[in-house]
Design brief:
Elements lengths: L1 H35 L4 H6 L2 H30 L2 H27 L6 H11 L8 H13 L46 H5 L11 H40 L2
Length: 249
Amino acid sequence: MEGDCLSCMKYLMFLFNFFIFLGGACLLGLGIWVIVDPTGFREIVAANPLLFTGAYIMLAMGAMLFLLGFLGCCGAIRENKCLLLFFFMFILLIFLAELSAAILAFIFRENLTREFFTNELKKHYQRNNDTDVFSATWNSVMITFACCGVNGPEDFEAIPHLPYSSLEKVTATPEACCQRELQSREGMFVNKEACLSGNERFQNRQGCYTVILNSFETYVYLAGALAIGVLAIELFAMIFAMCLFRGIQ
């Protein structure tokens, strides 16, 4: 009976570690994508030290979970006490680090304010200068989400005009805020001339902060549920690791 119980625990331990292995692979891939993304998303992340640090923490955590999931699977199948003890100690450290990171993210969430993004936009945005990664990224965001600025077109009133379009001298609204038939760079403008001349009917008037926040609200809860699930899996994996460790002769 004891042997059957130990065998069942061994395979449950393997199953839990396999999920940790997959979770680590996903986090690792996501962290690499955020850091090396060629579309310029990394520039927005780099503009905020908290997001920048979070991207590297996610990358490090993914790599460690990937490694420990693999070691846990090997330790369970081979019934190696040394590997199981090594796995337990490091998964405990990761568990505590993730819990601390979640608490810090909750405490410092107020740093991601409208004022921060508005100041960054006014400081670095160069309108249609697509050679500037920050500007090109903001233009892509505004086109994709059919929004304008952080709060609205008024964010661009204090930004100097660049000689990319003579029409833009008439209005503070950049070209990326003009309505398109298809929300992509290839999409045709509904009425570009009227938009740049100040006709609000052909402009996207809603700020990107509200639009993006509403768009990702569902995913925030999904990410939170996923994080809780990962922590629960790690906790069960530690329990099974200790039980298996004590059961191996």
